[in-house]
Structures are given as C-alpha cells and as structure tokens.
Amino acid sequence: MKPLLPGDPAYPPGLNDLEEPPPLYIRGRIPDGPCVAVVGTRSCTRYGVDIGESMGRQLASAGLVTVSGLARGIDAAAHRGTVTVRGHGVAILGSGLDHIYPRENIGLAQSLVEHGGAVVSEYPNGTPPDRWRFPARNRLIAAMSVAVVVVESRVTGGAQITAVLAAEMGRPVFAVPGDVDRESSAGTNRLIRDGAIPVFGGQDLLDELSVLAGVDARPVGLNGPVPAGGLDIDDLPDHWGCTIKEALVRLGRLEASGEVRRLGDRILPAIRD
Question: DSSP string of 130-152?
Fold first, then answer.
C-alpha cells in the first residue's frame, strides 16, 4: 500500500500545521468537509457513552465529519453514533491498518469505510499497537479537526493530550461537564476551568461551532424533512437517526419556527400560502 504524502491534493490540509506532516496509510476515503474530533476516556460511564453517540449522530446529521481514535469508550461511541445515521467518520490508529486495535472494533472500522469514511494511520502494515504510539496518534486527531470536543476524561490520558495539542494549534476546545466527584469527569471539568468551552449536547456543540469555528453546522438530518404525508411522533427517531429525546427537541424547534404542525400524534409539514 502506497502512502498519501504531504503535497498531494488529497492530503488533509489541517495536517500541514504539524512540523513534520507524516505519510498516511488509508483504508477507505477521507471525506471532504469540516472534521470535528470527539474524544474521551476508555473507562467511561453510560452517561459518557450516550453523549458520545449523540455527538456522533448530530455531527453526521449536520454533514460534518467525526474524527476520533478507535479505542473503547468515547471514541467508539462517537463512531457508532456516526455510522448509525450513515454519516462520515475517520478513525486514526496507533498501529498499522492490518492491526486494528482493539479487535472488538474491527466491525466498526469496516462500517466507517462502508459509509464513505476512512481508517487512517501514519504507520505501515505490520506495525503493532504499542502503547507509546497512541500519544503520537493524538496530534493527528487534533490537527485534522477544526475543533475538538472532550466528552468524558480523567485528568491524564489521550483525550487531555489531544485537547492541549488542539489549543496549541489554535483549534477551539469544547468539554462536556460532569459530576465534580466523578473521576471520569475530572479532566473535562478541569479543561472547562482552564478555558475550554462547556457544551451540553450535540445541538449546543453545533451552535458553538457555527460561531467559533465558522462551520455551517445545521442539523438538517440525513433523511430529510418531514414528508408530505407526515409521520407519527414515534417514527421521528428512525427518520432523523437520533434518540427520542433528540427528536422531541428538534420537533419543538421546528414547531416554534413554523416548519411543521401537529395533528394529534401526527407530525405534518406546515401549510404554505
């Protein structure tokens, strides 16, 4: 497999901010469009998993590219959310492409590729997932992205490294607050204390990205508007590729803006003059 080299038109432009942009080995295709990194701890809680998946879904539904590692925990959650709505994601490895780690995420890596995304490494085939390679991998996640959001993180670890590197490169850093006595939220809370921007969910992140990163991030949904025949409320999550809670929030906004109307439990497009 020949690597993609700096200077090639297909080379991710953000990586040129690195002192030594590396060659990239790619399975799939790095999608066009703004990339947003969603990172966090492997030892996450159910709260973190839910937020990570929601972030992946909403970024994908807004046409953005989700970038992360392929680790257990928040990384995998963000990518699962992305592929759930058939969005585009990029997983960056700390090993060769023939050494997917952890092995339990081989199927997730394949789903990213099948949905138009990519699995990327700076290491050639045959390179094992040695622990020391993963901190180096984090600089690629930070550089490829227009912004980084840390969902759940301890005070040390890869997510903290990624956040620091992103800040040094001038990328906005966002963090999801958590309980002050929860170890897995200690890092995100500290990032907020030290200047990271708190975000409270996917829509909040999209709003902040529009202001701070100049990203046109409007959650229009990959499956389009409410069809002319309408939909039952219970069908909205499948139609929009989100949870029922997210669907109800979006429904409320559409009702407030006059884009839809409700007839009992049936949601219909607004009547236009």
Answer: -TTHHHHHHHHHHHH-SEEEE-S
**129-143 tens-digit pLDDT:** 898 898 899 999 999
Same domain, 148 and 199: yes
**Which residue type sits at 22?**
P
Range of the domain at 235: 231-269
State the DSSP string of 28-95.
E-PPSS-EEEEE--SS--HHHHHHHHHHHHHHHHTTPEEEE---TTHHHHHHHHHHHTT--EEEE-SS
End-to-end Cα separation, the chain, in angstroms: 58
User: Could you report the per-residue pLDDT of 78-106, keeping only the tens digit for each?
Assistant: 999 999 988 999 999 999 999 999 999 99
Q: How many domains does the chain have?
A: 2
Tokens coding 40: 């966090």
Looking at the fold, whether 187 and 240 belong to one and the same domain comes out as no
pTM here?
A: 0.80
